[in-house]
Design a protein that fits this description.
With about 210 residues, this protein is mainly beta. It has one helix spanning about 1-25, and strands at about 35, 40-45, 55-60, 65-70, 75-80, 85-90, 100-105, 115-120, 130, 135-140, 145-150, 155, 160, 165-170, 170-180, 185-190, 195-200.
């Protein structure tokens, strides 16, 4: 009786500790989808750090429909070639879907970057497409903006404050285009550093009448 009680308490302690460990690993999703130019490729990892080999991964659209399925190889690597443009979650049976999303910019067989996807088994802590990102803050009258295009992907208007927008993007170079009706197109290049906010102040110029 005493032995069973001790074993029961030990199991409960382990379960609580494991839950706290998993909870501590939760990652806040990025504010905007991750732009992907070409095929979406990555490595599937479980919460213990092991690669998930021989697993079927699904791309899920906004209506929760499976758009494509990929099979991971012996090293957990997977590829989704020739996927239609759109925004998707990644899902693997037995794990929670990713809390963040990707946005396919163009259909292609080739991938330019391989992402790590961490899958977890915990309902309050979504799986996560891990990437090093920087934040772009664009300062301008947000109510005038029709669209923001990042690397040829329409990102929409992300209003955080009345006079600024924030976008979390993969670190590195990006081409930004801002569409403001009645004004000249705003285009600029920016290089983002990981865990750093880069601020760009836009001066709008009226189109000639």
């Amino acid at each position: 009786m005493k032995r069973n009680l001790i074993l029961g308490l030990a199991f409960l302690f382990f379960a609580i500790s494991a839950s706290q460990l998993i909870r501590a690993e939760c990652i806040q999703p990025a504010r905007s989808p991750i732009p992907v130019a070409g095929a979406f490729c990555g490595i599937a990892i479980d919460q213990s750090g092991e690669r998930l080999a021989g697993q079927d991964l699904d791309l899920i659209d906004s209506t929760k429909q499976v758009i494509a399925t990929a099979h991971s190889d012996s090293k957990g690597r997977f590829e989704f070639p020739n996927v239609a443009r759109g925004v998707y979650h990644v899902q693997l049976w037995g794990f929670t879907p990713t809390s963040n999303t990707i946005q396919i910019a163009n259909t292609s067989e080739h991938c330019n970057r391989r992402f790590r996807v961490d899958f977890v088994v915990y309902s309050d802590c979504g799986s996560h497409i891990r990437f090093e990102y920087g934040t772009l803050r664009v300062i301008l009258p947000v109510d005038l903006v029709k669209d923001v295009i990042v690397d040829r992907v329409s990102m929409g208007v992300a209003e955080v404050e009345r006079q600024s927008m924030l976008y979390d993007l993969v670190r590195g170079p990006h081409r930004i285009e801002i569409v403001v009706p009645g004004y000249e197109p705003v285009q600029f290049n920016v290089r983002l550093r990981a865990n750093h906010t880069t601020t760009y102040r836009v001066g709008l110029v009226h189109l000639p009448k």
